[in-house]
Amino acid sequence: MLNIVLFGPPGCGKGTQSEKLIAKYGLVHLSTGDILRAEIANQTQLGLEAKQYMDKGALVPDEVVIGMIASKIDANRDAQGFIFDGFPRTTAQAAALDKMLAERNMQIKCMLSLEVPKEELIKRLLNRGLTSGRSDDQNPEIIENRIKEYNQKTAPVIEYYKAQNKYKPINGVGSIEDIFMALCQAIETE
Ligand code: AMP
Predict the structure, then answer these.
(1) What pLDDT shows up at residue 36?
(2) What are the angstrom distances between the C-alpha of 112 and each of 55, 102, 169?
(3) Is 89 in the pocket of ligand 1 (CB under 6 A)?
(4) Is pLDDT above 80 for 190?
(5) Is 0.85 surpassed by the pTM of this model?
(6) Which residue range is the domain that position 136 belongs to?
(7) How confident is the model at residue 43 (pLDDT cuts 50, 70, 90)?
(8) What is the pLDDT of residue 20?
(9) Domain at 98, CATH number
């Protein structure tokens, strides 16, 4: 099984590269952001709770997102592997993911971290906001807050995977194809 964490700040290209990795390696995509937006669209209790945080650019509480993941893994037990996109976003989530996978005789192969400077992220997110319909992509203050949350709570997850020798930094600036090639190379060199 090929289980990958695709990591990086908002706007680093996780969504775009996930699609390409899924097509190439036949993986199941698990994006907590997509799952949360679907919950909001369906007006579920979970969606209503999560929306309060997402509208501010804040992280949704760990117990909410951790609870969503196990059922998605179990619903795809025949998968060739999973790509975790936007999860884990805290070290508590990373530890919970490891536990969840170990209980199912699975593990993460590597954490691919797309590195992009802040100015470029803001430019990309505002640009995406023109077409994504996402209010959290349209407001510079919310974007700032998302990047702040990333730096404070999410960036430490790098240390978690470094300690397991699974951290692989990838330059996230350049053409989509070049970045994709770098990701594939990192996956295939072990
Ligand atoms: P994304 O689509 O990954 O950019 O996520 C959009 C928003 O959903 C984030 O700004 C958070 O509010 C929330 N979110 C998504 N994934 C997580 C997660 N793993 N932990 C906490 N909040 C999350």
Answers:
(1) 97
(2) 27, 20, 6
(3) yes
(4) no
(5) yes
(6) 2-185
(7) very high
(8) 98
(9) 3.40.50.300
In a domain, 145, yes or no: yes
Distance 181 CA to ligand 1 centre (A): 26
Active site residue 134: yes
Instruction: Please report whether residue 159 resides in a domain.
Output: yes
Q: Which of 109, 128, 153, 166 is catalytic?
A: 128
**Nearest atom (ligand 1) to Cα of 56:** 12
Domain-located, residue 65? yes
- From 5, 55, 89, give the residue whose CB has the most ligand 1 atoms within 8 Å, as the site to mutate: 89
pLDDT per position as a tens digit, 71-102: 999 999 899 999 999 999 999 999 999 999 99
The pLDDT value given to residue 176: 98
Task: Considering only CA atoms, give the Rg of the chain.
Answer: 16
Q: Under DSSP, is residue 155 helix (H, G, I), strand (E, B) or coil?
A: coil
Active site residue 124: no
- What is the CA(54)–ligand 1 centre distance, in A? 7
Determine whether 77 is an active site residue: no
3-state helix/strand/coil string of 158-178:
HHHHHCCCCEEEEECCCCHHH
List residues bridging with 7 in a β-sheet. Answer: 113
Instruction: Report the number of distinct structural domains present in the chain.
Output: 1
